[in-house]
TrEMBL record:
InterPro entries: Cell_div_FtsQ/DivIB_C, DivIB, FtsQ_DivIB, POTRA, POTRA_FtsQ_type. Its main location: membrane. This is Cell division protein DivIB. It comes from Limosilactobacillus fermentum NB-22. The keyword Metal-binding does not apply. It is a single-pass type II membrane protein. The chain crosses the membrane at residues 55-76. It is found in: Cell membrane; Membrane. Cell division protein that may be involved in stabilizing or promoting the assembly of the division complex. One of its GO terms (cellular component) is plasma membrane. One of its GO terms (biological process) is FtsZ-dependent cytokinesis.
Length: 281
């Protein structure tokens, strides 16, 4: 009786175990199916990601390569070189002189002129002392405009035995153009420092006043070693000090309008005028 009961318990336990094992197998199959379906759904996304990633890596190599290739093609092509130059702002210099000094001429590389302005301006200053600064702008596919600012020519002096241009910087330049209406300088042969100071002062004068000067003579006295005599084209004579010439000469036009006849305008101390031969002044 007891054995019969044990057998029934054993069979129930065995049936329960079989049921659990069967359910486990079914659950395992369901999980496998779900995992397999998830992989099938994610596979296109994975492939798209791989394609996108490979394309990105390829572009990081190809884009710089094509940029360099296009730059090389441009450099060796005619489109990289200037075929037309226009010079503006020049007064004493000719357009050809500006082009020669700066290198901004037909056949020059556009990229150098436009993107290396400091070097172009420095080169022009070194090649021609009359050049103060240069600026180049692109006005067409192969056309440039050269804007030049000059150091004014303020006269002609005898230097090292021959005539040279005197610039507003106090430096000298060889004469290469036809000369018209330039100021002449006298009495400075052994006074280079005074000539340099006078040149800088004259260079600060307006073009109108500067063009009215015929000659500047260094005429020191025992009490004034800076005295200048300035002979004007209108017949007047100006007495001034070299160190204050630019400051005082700006009053010249207004003083002249109050004069009835040509005479002397004294700008050494204060500013007043008197007729030639008037000893009371």
């Amino acid at each position: 009786m007891a054995n019969h009961r044990d057998n029934r318990e054993h069979r129930r336990y065995a049936d329960r175990l079989a049921t659990l094992e069967a359910q486990s197998v079914i659950d395992g199959r369901d999980r496998f199916k779900k995992r397999h379906q998830g992989l099938k759904k994610g596979l296109p996304k994975l492939r798209a990601y791989q394609i996108k990633s490979n394309l990105g890596r390829a572009l990081t190599v190809l884009i710089p390569f094509f940029i360099v290739l296009l730059a090389m093609i441009y450099v060796v092509s005619p489109f990289s070189k200037v075929n037309q130059v226009k010079v503006v702002g020049n007064e004493d210099l000719t357009a050809k002189q500006v082009e020669a000094a700066s290198g901004a001429k037909a056949g020059a590389f556009i990229w150098r002129l436009v993107f290396d302005q400091a070097a172009v301006s420095k080169q022009a200053q070194q090649n021609n002392l009359q050049v103060k600064s240069i600026r180049v702008s692109l006005v067409g596919p192969r056309s440039v405009k050269v804007h030049v600012v000059e150091n004014p020519v303020i006269g002609i002096v005898t230097h090292n035995g021959h005539q040279e241009l005197l610039l507003s910087t106090g430096k000298y330049q060889k004469i290469s153009n036809n000369l018209t209406n330039f100021i002449t300088y006298a009495g400075f042969a052994k006074h280079e420092g005074m000539l340099t100071e006078t040149a800088k002062q004259v260079g600060q004068l307006s073009a109108t006043i500067r063009q009215g000067i015929s000659q500047v003579t260094y005429s020191p006295t025992s009490t004034d070693d800076e005295r200048l005599k300035i002979y004007m084209n209108d017949g007047n004579t100006v007495l001034a000090n070299a160190s204050t010439l630019a400051q005082k000469m700006k009053y010249y036009p207004s003083i002249v309008t109050n004069m009835n006849t040509a005479g002397v305008i004294d700008l050494q101390v204060g500013a007043y005028s008197y007729a030639y031969g008037d000893q009371s002044k």
